[in-house]
Amino acid sequence: xxxxxxxxxGTVGGGVVKILQERSADFEALxxxxxxxxxxxxRRSHRLEELGLSKExxxxxxxxxxKSNPDIVVEVMGGDAPAETILKALESxxxxxxxxKALLANRARDFMGHSKGEFLxxxxxxxxxxxxxxxxxxxxxxxxxxxxLGIFNGTCNYILSEMTQKGSDFAEVLAEAQRLGxxxxxxxxxxxxxxxxxxxxxxxxxxxxxxxxxxAIPSQGITRLSxxxxxxxxxxxxxxxxxSIGEREGEGIFAxxxxxxxxxxxPMAHVGGAFNAVYIEGDQVGELMFYGAGAGERPxxxxxxxxxxxxxxxxxxxxxxxxxxxxxxLSVHSDRxxxxxxxxxxxxxxxxxxxxxxxxxxxxxxxxxxxxxPPFDGQAEIVFITHPTTGGNxxxxxxxxxxxxxxxxxxxxxxxxxx
Amino acid sequence: xxxxxxxxxGTVGGGVVKILQERSADFEALxxxxxxxxxxxxRRSHRLEELGLSKExxxxxxxxxxKSNPDIVVEVMGGDAPAETILKALESxxxxxxxxKALLANRARDFMGHSKGEFLxxxxxxxxxxxxxxxxxxxxxxxxxxxxLGIFNGTCNYILSEMTQKGSDFAEVLAEAQRLGxxxxxxxxxxxxxxxxxxxxxxxxxxxxxxxxxxAIPSQGITRLSxxxxxxxxxxxxxxxxxSIGEREGEGIFAxxxxxxxxxxxPMAHVGGAFNAVYIEGDQVGELMFYGAGAGERPxxxxxxxxxxxxxxxxxxxxxxxxxxxxxxLSVHSDRxxxxxxxxxxxxxxxxxxxxxxxxxxxxxxxxxxxxxPPFDGQAEIVFITHPTTGGNxxxxxxxxxxxxxxxxxxxxxxxxxx
Lengths: 419, 419
Description:
With 419 residues, chain A is of the alpha/beta class. Chain A is 38% helix and 25% strand. In chain A, α5 packs parallel to α6, α6 crosses α14 and α15 crosses α16.
């Protein structure tokens, strides 16, 4: 019998209990002995009955939990509280499965740097049900990963997919997403790209085998996209996605999370709804994409329980331990030559367009196309597509045009990735 | 030092040697000791110099190879000859990595039924660089897999993608694919769906945890598709792909390889060129798709070398051993209710269409749509789309219409999967 202790009976914890019950015979057949829940620590004692768990295995104290001496600790309670329990479990040679992204972001080096740190399993912390951590640990080890592209946030992808299909406003779709439970009441963390960048740090570290510092990575959100941007994209063969990108560049990496236009024929362009995708280019394998549900009770619990089985089979996370405990901090370049889509408003006056073009030219920015909508109310909206330039250059040009009074209000710009 | 013996220096073997050389420092850092090629058996001694291998580690005899006592045997020579060497290696507690699909198809039970059968690694035998076997073994174990859909043959997918894009004839695109090296001189094995069905058997066995008998599975090829079929598909929101399908059905499975129309919005519809994809529905994780290169020197060698690292880390293939050594033969249903696309020619006579519709009706087949092209040369081409019906029913209806003289020449039919 393999004794399983569970910390947390929230959404994911409940899913874990259900899978362990529903598929217990299969796990016993695979492992040669049953996985048995011997202790549950949670504040939610009211869920015991609903989940068919005996009161005798319940506790609300970390101490009692530790005394129950589980072989594997499953941490699905979130927050910082379980940190010491995790460390003690590793110290006493137990395995730990966690879905706690926040805790990993802060303490990965403490946990994995532990002498038994290879027995920390954390598949569920990244892209829910997509088995991406285990792919890095097992099926992809022959490769040096040169590029990582991710659609890492289901909320954003749901909103962008709806805006693409229905031509609706951001605010309208966000409200609908909140009604449907695809977006939180305070959606900042998701729609500003922060959650996606957290995952970029985790998978970027595994990809480029060093530590990717969150603070060095720019995150641009999706709140300023307008229905017209989607119209322009679709007419020009592009699809708008929130893309997290990491690429080897010399000894460092280029990395960031940005709303981007990508070619509509690219497999990432067809990742719809609340789905996630991880796209990798390896020096040997070439292009690979993994697509699946990035969140939700069952997909996340699928990752936790698969890790539980891997823990029972001692499938050590050797690469993770190496990267997170020994990996040097990678230098991050947050800017590089890319094409930009720029949408801005100008006064409707003769000669403005030529002065705008001059302004870009003075920063060495050459233009691929210019589209001007019919002027309205004394203003003209213009869309510029640049040839490759840096975000820094672009900012300088726009600052100078703004101080010359050639731009009214805010400018919206977005990278074009010609994948 | 981990001693690696390689059987075969063909395309894949050469790729394996190159990766081991290029990334030796990385593998040593990950494993704590180097992977060293200590013996190579091959008929291709002429490749030693090109690959930078010393003549001293070369042999052309299985006996000498065995005496070299490698820790891990890498079998990339193909054919049946290495079977005894593989069995002897497993017997003496060594690990074996193989890319040999044909050998696995015949001897999987012998190899994996061995008491050390969990140390046979075979990622490269299925979908090249896509790390799908390791996903079944590690990241997906929480799931009961209910459905498997595959684009398993790169040659077919290349041909179908070209026919979709260019509106060309099958024969024309095949000739081009042969020129480019995407198709063999004798393409039967690929274009008739046989290779795809081999992979369906392998991944179907892992998915449904029983043995999937090749002989019970229908394979329909892509040779009879016409440019008009692609036109109809595109006008109706479908994309044509060669799909291998397996689905749980009672205690058995529904399985087959067929050219199919799938909705153009489905992620599988965007798998272009020579790429492969594996699409899975798990009871917990929901939909998942893996996309990547299914063949070629480096992608296949990526799978072999990743297996080599997994072997060095003793990541046993426990599920594979269980399924292939103990799994019962699954009963296969090769027919089920699906919509069909039917293209046929009739004599251009008054009343024929109504008699055709009657004929379908007599077999209980109801029609969703009928498209008739302008008649030419006394013949009319008609496309019928049925509501769901079985292939068996359809065959009966067509046989009866043919014997009534209402159909001229062969009928082409294709399943529509409304995924």
